[in-house]
Amino acid sequence: MSTNVTRDTFDQVMVPNYAPAGFIPVKAAGSRVWDQQGREFIDFAGGIAVNSLGHCHPELVATLTEQANKVWHLSNVFTNEPALELATLLTETTFAERVFLCNSGAEANEAAFKLARKYAADHYGADKHEIISCTNSFHGRTVFTVNVGGQPKYTEGFGPNPAGITHVPFNDIDALKAAISDKTCAVVIEPVQGEGGVLPATQAYLDAARELCNQHNALLVFDEVQTGVGRTGSLYAYQEYNVTPDILSSAKGLGGGFPVGAILTTSEIAKSFGVGTHGTTYGGNPLASAVAKKVIEIVSRPEVLAGVRAKHQRFVDGLNAINAKYNVFKEIRGMGLLIGAVVSDEFAGRAREFLKAAEAHQLMVLVAGLSVVRFAPSLVIEDKDIDEGLARFDAAIAELVAANRT
Sites of the modification N6-(pyridoxal phosphate)lysine (predicted)? Predict the structure, then answer.
């Protein structure tokens, strides 16, 4: 395998805003990844919940190849068949009547928040512009989305910050009641906080949020960038809770590894995005749209969604068995194949050490904050890969514990 570039090359030529792992993957299939030295890794990270069908899924490869031989890009001066087919499928499988296509989760959320403010201005006037979000939430890295996100560390040095954004504790109904008013244009919630620690919303909280938005003529926005497209065991997490938002953002798993994003909404709300009000050059790209349509078709298969639920239990049982041996986690939480292992007080703030230990045992995992190890594997990961990956994780933790407790 080629080694013309190495991990050291990153430090020489890339902007230093990332600290990537010490190996470079060069080939992948399913839930297995090989690096430049030919070492085989098991992938429990899924490109941060992006590779919904694993690596190089044959149906996705065939779809992309077919579209690549037709048309790559046209812009939104024109339309194209794959974009229209994807939008049609999304309206057929969700609450949505209208779809806006873009390129990423941040773009989807940017569009969602702009649409919420525009709709409020159109119907209630400029004073109705306030957005309520949750502490520890994450909605993207644009200036707008990073401020709607509830993690101040991501806004430091990028001020002045946009006005009219309030944060309340997640799952705190009383705090939401106290914050919402007739000036609120939108309440923004992740059904499962991803970057904030893989923390699911309670049923009561989402029910209350829906009712409060109804009372105050505010829009309920669900950020399903990480939870969408089968990740929780339903096509979208709102279906798990039976709470329907007014706007939903989707990305990550939507393209199965190909960059794409979308917002889903109703016809009435969509009217506020008239011609020229918002746009994106690459949004609705034929390549991305063709792949995303195939992803939705595959993930929507009953056996795939049922498999997510079964694999969730296999993961949780395996993690609990590991914890029974080493007592390093104080909670295993999440939904479907978005799972968080909260480290014990002994390892508080040190979740990244688990990631590094796993890497040494050729296992790819994630963190969610400082104290949660996160797992977001392929939705169709084979049971043998789950078992082998957990065995490697067991060995990694044994080594970490031995070093820590001697």
Answer: 252
